Amino acid sequence: MIDARLVPDDVLGVCRRLHEARHEAHLVGGCVRDLLLGRPPGDFDVATSARPDDVMKLFGARYAIPTGLQHGTVTVVTGEPPRQRHVEVTTFRGEGEYLDGRRPSAVRFGATLQEDLARRDFTMNAIAFDPMAGLVTDPFAGQSDLGRKLLRAVGDAIERFREDGLRPMRAVRQAAQLAFEIEASTLAAIPAGIHSFRRVSAERIRDELFKLLGAARPSRGLELMRETGLLAEVVPEVLESVGVVQNRFHRYDVYRHTLATLDAARADVVSRLGALLHDVGKPRARQPREGAPGEYSFFKHEYVGAEMTDDICRRLKLSTAQREDVTALVTHHMFYYTPDWSDGTIRRFVKRVGAERLPHLLALREADIAGRGFDEDPKSETRELEQRIATVAASDAALRVTDLAIDGRDVMRILGIPPGRRIGEMLERLLDRVLDDPALNTKEALETLARELARESG
């Protein structure tokens, strides 16, 4: 059962106002599922017998936003900034045929609560809770499925997946997030929904993939994607690694190593995508290992993988910053630190990777080590490097051109040259010297050094 005291007062207030106007008001969807599972809901959705116009009148123009009147949805804003909440209030509805694999061709208001629940995707999301009466409505045995940790489609699974092409992806994502099994007929229906899935926008698929990657064990979701054919639609490049044997340094093939690395990676999107794609170039770079029959080398696979990663990120419509960050992780994940690195080498490493990306890269290396499958200390290759980086960072050394004590205008003045490519080239040469000797980063020393470098280059 659900304790109504777990429902926030502002959400109760929305339901109370609808009840006082003689309308039904039920919490529905993920918030009810989460309350039954003992998890704090992220969002609250309300289903009501009130028509959209009635909802608008009840809450007024200040608090009611007509976000989807044609589909019966009004967003009610509760609370005051900065602690406002958006509660979606949707009229009970029946639906016509889905022609575009996303939305019904027609919406019919005046449906019953049971009819409204019947149009939902999975039984665990087709439970309603009236917090005013303390009443749970569960026509499809969703509570039983929750108890069995089972994800099951409402009614005919093939029909549900053809209605909304994203539902197959939502099934594997929620199974991964909740550590649920997918009921056999629901799982078997996913391949039949691939045709509708192909009509879903890259942005919607990307968002589901991001949520899947945030699961405690995202490998579970990736395996479901592979088994059902979804992976071939979303990131087919990863399938190239299935069964690709490596060498004595890895217990698993490339694909299984990738899954193990993924589970061990930091749970933010950039780190998890970096883990998923860090070895994506290995199958295309694989060569027999000389003197080791049955083993393989993957020379420069990080550069092959970086090009593939850039393409994948563009296809999935990642932001420019996300694409550049993920691609950088793939590009640089094969660094080899040794104790004889000089402080200048450390600074060049930080400059090349980018100080803001270093925590992600070091964490990826640790996940990569864990993914080799030999129970090694994940920090065996990063512990000393982290300490060295911290020491260098504490010296406040210049790591970027913008950290130098002079800028492009100074270079033009010192050398008597106009704006152009030579300015940037000189600043990079100056930075290269400062990386080895931070004491050079003064205005006087750099002016002298700039003149000397200009004379050397004629």
Task: Describe the model.
There is one protein chain. The protein is α+β, with helices and mostly antiparallel strands. The chain contains 24 helices and 13 strands. The protein has 4 domains: 4-141, Beta Polymerase, domain 2, CATH 3.30.460; 149-234, Orthogonal Bundle (Hydrophobic Seed Protein), CATH 1.10.110; 255-395, Hypothetical protein af1432 (Orthogonal Bundle); 401-456. The radius of gyration is 28 Å and the shape is globular. The model has no long low-confidence stretch (mean pLDDT 94). The protein has a 7-stranded mixed beta sheet with strand order 3-4-5-2-1-8-9. Helix 7 runs parallel beside helix 10, helix 15 packs across helix 18 and helix 17 packs antiparallel against helix 18 (320-332).
**Strand adjacency order, main sheet:** 3-4-5-2-1-8-9
Inertia-based shape: globular
Total of domains? 4
CATH architecture of the largest domain: Orthogonal Bundle
Measured as a percent range, the helix fraction is: 40-55%
> Which spans of ≥5 residues are poorly predicted at pLDDT below 50?
none
Number of strands: 13
Please name the CATH topology of the largest domain.
Answer: Hypothetical protein af1432
**Regarding CATH, which class of the largest domain?**
Mainly Alpha
The radius of gyration computed from the alpha-carbon positions, rounded to a whole number of angstroms, is 28 Å
Number of helices: 24
* Mean pLDDT, all residues: 94
Strand fraction equals 5-15%
